[in-house]
Amino acid sequence: MELTPEDITAIVLSLKVAFAATALSLPLGFAAAWLIVFRTFRGKVLLEVLVNLPLTLPPVVIGYLLLLLLGKNGWLGQLLASAGIHLIFTWKAAVIASAVVGFPLLVRSIRLGMESIDPLLVKASRTLGASWLDSLLSVILPLSMKGIIAGSSLMFARSLGEFGATIILAGNIPGVTQTIPLAIYDYASSPSSTAMALSLCFVSIVISVAVLFLHELLSRKIDRSNGL
Amino acid sequence: MKLHIDIEKTLGGFSLQLTTDLSGERVGIFGDSGSGKTTLIHLLSGLLRPDRGEILLDGECLFSSKRGVDLSPEQRRIAIVFQQAMLFPHLSARSNLLYGYRRCSDADRAITPESLIELFQLRPLLQRRVRHLSGGEKQRIALARAVLSNPRLLLMDEPLSALDDTLRFQIIPYLKSVSEEFRIPYLFISHSMTEMRLMAEQVIVVKGGQLVEETTPEGLARSRMALSQGGYLNLLRLADPVADRGLVAWRWGRNTLLISPDRLEERALFELSSRDIILFRKHPEAISARNLLECTVKEMFDADGRVGVVLSVNGEQLVAEIVRSAADELGVAAGSTLFAAIKASAFRQLG
To answer: How confident is the model over B225-230, as a mean pLDDT?
Structure first.
């Protein structure tokens, strides 16, 4: 097995993008899941549909819509440009693409975790003097930790594999936006690079297995501290 | 405690409409499941918002649709003890116990953890994880947790229904101590007549989301005598058991009762159905029932065609149930002397 300096850059970038996308999505995903599980409000169905939409849309479609929104002529793109922020064809665009595509997976897992909390526990905390925010932090957050860990691992792994939306929004620029899947795509198009492609596949597998192991380890730890 | 309730709430197909003024320290709310008891508790504590009306506790407005007042649960300071203990599974017994106390302002901290840990005998439980506690221990911690939040009012929502019989009657003294030791008034919600009589001094009866009766536990038990399965249940506090030829002789005030052996404790509470008492006008010379008590008729009451005979037995009280024709035949009247026969196996030990 042999890795070129470009491959190393792609691996580091992949990890960086996956970490950033997960970290960026966590608070939003937690808030969305909390709204869906614990609050009743008008337009809840709309929120659920919006959150789940990226799961059903082809990533290429998501990438294209994001490009329209954030591109030079997009309204958000123009707004950001006037503030001096340029996102597309940078590694930040890869983060946004990954975040949007992985978001439904994150919310689903956190939601499952929150739905397993007995609502009476939350009510009990309120009658014991906890405000809704206090109750959120002292009861809901620790008890949905398993869902948060599961969702984060899933999202992290999904981000590592993100291809369709990323190639449209961030491009495939070696050293700048080329992540592992994009690098493998390049190698795969030339017949002489099979060994290089396989090396990166192997790295992919190693990272994924590591993520899964870490997830198992953490969720067992949480089970123990939650008294299960 | 003075509680003014005048509220309406529609939830799906169920609607609750209740107006009452409660005063007293130990109030019972009696009703079958589905009568709206739990909805009422949620409305009082602020977990559910009434559609209309107002709630005042000791003169303070907790909710008023007219004035636009709706205090949040944490501002109301009304704690709940639920059917299940509802301990936080991610916290230790100790952290559970202190959850409300830590969120209580200094000025309101009248009851301290130390005093409660002693009284409720919680010390050996404190370091344990919640899952290592038994049902009764969990409920004791849950009760202590609620008391330590130093609430103005404690709502007990069928706190005993998830426990087995023996445990149930072991927990009752702890529940009662809330009012006796800590001067926290409570509303006790239950569909068990026996629990109602042990816990409450006055009762409101709820049915289909409406208040149907305001009474005392005794009045409730008497009025339901003919309808309930076991008739009127006499609650007897007995003491000093002594083995006696295969039975156990218990002291009941100045009387002695022979009862089939069960658990032997220094003091125990027994239940005796009004239907298990046979009345004689004259002393029957020989009968198989092991208890024959000479008693005086104190009063009589009617309940749906049955006659309740309140008997005085050497200063203790017993209610027997007979049909109207039997009352006529026996010529029972207040002041007359009767003999009550009770089988040794008719008593049921509660706790």
So the answer is: 86
For residue B72, being part of any structural domain is answered with: yes
Comparing C-alpha atoms, which of A2, A5, A13 is closest to residue A171? A13
Residue at a domain's end among B200, B223, B246? B223
pLDDT at B199: 94
Domain that holds residue B91: 2-223
Tell me the CA distances in angstroms from B172 to A175, A193, B198, B291, one per residue in order.
72, 78, 8, 29
Contact criterion met (CB below 8 Å) for A181 and A47: no
- Does one domain contain both B213 and B321? no
Euclidean distance between CA atoms B330 and B327, whole angstroms:
5
**Nearest CB to A124; choose among B86, B104, B151:** B86
Length of chain B: 351
Q: With respect to CATH, is domain A5-225 assigned 3.30.2010.30?
A: no
* Measured distance CA(B275)–CA(B232) in Å, rounded: 8
Strand partners, B188: B28, B156
- Name the 3-class secondary structure at B90: coil
Paired with B153 in beta bridges are B78
pTM attached to this predicted model: 0.86
- Most A CBs within 10 A among B42, B71, B74, B125, hence the mutation to make, goes to B74
CA gap A109, A96 in Å, rounded: 20
Cβ <8 Å between A120 and B104: no
| ipTM score of complex | 0.85
Instruction: Judge if B90 and B218 occupy the same domain.
Output: yes
Tell me if B13 sits within 8 A of A93, measured CB to CB: no
B127-148: average pLDDT: 92
B17–chain A nearest CA distance, Å: 23
pLDDT tens-digit series, residues B290-319: 999 999 999 999 998 899 999 999 999 999
C-alpha–C-alpha distance, residues B172 and A1, integer Å:
73
pLDDT class of B119 with cuts at 50, 70, 90: confident
Q: What is the pLDDT of residues A87-120, one digit of tens each?
A: 989 999 999 999 999 999 999 999 999 999 999 9
